[in-house]
Amino acid sequence: MNLPWNDVDTVLLDMDGTLLDLHYDNYFWRHYLHQRYAAEEGITEEAVRAWLLPKMHELRGTLEWYCVEFWSRLLGRDIGPYKEEVADRIGWRPGAQAFLEGLAAAGKRRVLVTNAHPRTVELKFRRTGLDRHLDAVITAHDFRRPKEDAGFWTALREAESFDPERAVLFDDNATALGRAREHGIRWLYGIAQPDLQEAPLQWDDFPAVDDFDGFTPKVDTAAAPR
Asked: What is the pLDDT at residue 1?
């Protein structure tokens, strides 16, 4: 898969499922949170799921769905420590770290655009050092709009002042990619397997990246100053 890197200045990058393995998030929200809450309340996991899953489905794609503070209020306890308890599952996706280093060497601006709550972002930065490989970090909570909302991309253009014709977005969220396309971002790529422990996704509207190995822009070292 070739990208004309000479025509790209800004690289917009999702975090969960793109740079980092989505397994941590899937495990926490689908399993661990239910287990911990059930154990503390002295009820069955089935009872927790019967109550919590419909709420999750209802809010999917909204800012609340991504908000640690919202779910903490709903559950009546801070779930931040729960996320810390399984933080050993946080990890890079194949080739992502080298890809970010290659982008820096090629002079590309690396901008994280994530729906994750700032507390989750901080946890993942602390565990992976991802922040050391970025030029800017934008969360949906900065704009009070998730990436599924057109307003996020309008606010992003104002905050970053980039040329969408010279920008690329990598994201495992098809709705976010569609919104980015509406706002003129020229190159758009999905992620074939966001959760490395689950089957690959089926992508119809966007090309998908299996991993970032071999996707790094080539730097002409012969032309570099000595």
From this structure: 60
In the residue annotation, 171 being an active-site residue is answered as: no
Dmax (CA) of the chain: 68
Position 215 scores a pLDDT of 81
Q: Are residues 174 and 100 in the same domain?
A: yes
Query: Helix H segments across the chain?
Result: 23-27, 33-41, 45-59, 68-75, 80-85, 96-105, 118-128, 140-143, 150-160, 174-182
Please tell me whether the overall predicted TM-score, pTM, comes out greater than 0.85 for this model. Answer: yes
User: Measuring CA to CA, which residue among 160, 197, 199 is closest to residue 180?
Assistant: 160
Same domain, 95 and 138: yes
pLDDT of 90 = 98
Same domain, 149 and 45: no
Which of 7, 131, 205, 213 is catalytic? The answer is: 7
**In which residue ranges of the chain is pLDDT below 70?**
1, 219-226
CATH number at residue 133: 3.40.50.1000
Residue with tokens 């820096």: 104
Domain of residue 196, residue span: 5-21+91-218
